[in-house]
Amino acid sequence: MNIHEAIDRLEYLIAHSRQIPLTRTVVIDQEEALACIDDLRLSLPDEVKQARWTLQEQQRLLSEAQAEAARIVNKASERAQTMMGQQELLKRAEKQAETMLKEAAAKAEETRRAADRYAWDVMQNLESQLLRTITTVKKGVEALRIPAAKAREIEVVSGRS
User: Fold this and answer.
1) Domain containing 74: what range?
2) pLDDT of res. 45
3) How deeply is 3 buried, as exposed, middle or buried, from its count of CB atoms within 10 A (0-12, 13-18, 19+)?
């Protein structure tokens, strides 16, 4: 019998006992009342054991829940740290890529300017050489023109004779 049943039995015993007239006092069967009290005493250790077990089980479940919560928080924290690390790594990689692109663009611009300067110098040099060659050719043509003109004059003069 559990404690609740023993209390219910004692309550029934009191409620259904004979009442002394004009008072609130009842006459209870002593043997039955003592038997109820004995049942209560016997039930109490079981109830206390059950309560202790329930309390221990509650503590165990609470500890497990706290451990699980701590594990979840730690895992989430680690994940957040990993994500932050990855985010930081990504930012650094993007910044490095941007720097490399800027450097490459600057180097390309510098190379283009150097190529333009070289081409300009080559063209200037070629122009100077061509002008000298043209001058030399003109001088040669002039030099040949004078004797050719004299030869024509001689032909013209000799052809008349």
Assistant:
1) 3-160
2) 76
3) middle
